[in-house]
Hints:
There is one protein chain. With about 200 residues, this protein is an all-alpha fold. It contains nine helices and no strands. Helix 3 (about 50-60) packs antiparallel against helix 5.
Amino acid sequence: MGSKEWSFVLMMSALGNVLAFITIAPTMIQQVALDFSLLPVFVAAIFGGPVIGGITGLLAGIVPSIWFGPLGSLGPLGVTTSIGKAIVGVTAGLLAKVFNPTSRSSLYYAPVVLLSYVPEAAWIYAVFSIFVPLLLPGAPEFLYGLWLPILIKGTFEISVMAAFMAALGGHVGFRNFVLSSLRSVALKQSEHAKS
C-alpha cells in the first residue's frame, strides 16, 4: 500500500468515526444505538479490497469501541467493536472480488453489503454470549442477551447502507473519485479484469 492508499484509509476511517459519533450519541438506548460508521468501510472494502477494508474497519471502530467500551458497559471488551468492523471490511472486500460490483450494475453492491454482515453478526453473538459472561463476570445481566436487539438494529442499518452503496456505486463521478484515490489498487483491478 502506498501513501495514496493510506491517505484514503485514514480519510474513510475518520469519516467512519464522525458518522459513528453523530449517529450513536442521539440514538443511544441502553448500549444499543444506530451506527452508520460502516458506510465508509464498505466504500474502502469494495473499491480497495479486503486489506484496505479491514484496516479501515479497525480504525473506523475507534469511536464506537470507546463509546460502548470504557464509556459504556463493555469496558475492555469495547475493542470488539473495532474487530467486528474489521471483519466486515475484510468480508466485503472478499465478496467484492466475487460479485465485482464496480464493473456491473449498481444493484450488485447490495448483496456484498448484506452478506458481509453475516460474519459480524456471528461475532456479535459470540461477544455477548461467550466473551461477556467469561471475561466480565460482574457485568449487568442485561448485557448477556443484548446480542438480539443489536442484531435486529444492525440488520436495519445494513439494509439502509446497502441501499446507500447501490446509489453511490451507481454514480460515475463517485466511482471515479474513489478509484482515483486508490490509483494503484484500481490499476491492479483493471489488470486482473483483462487477464
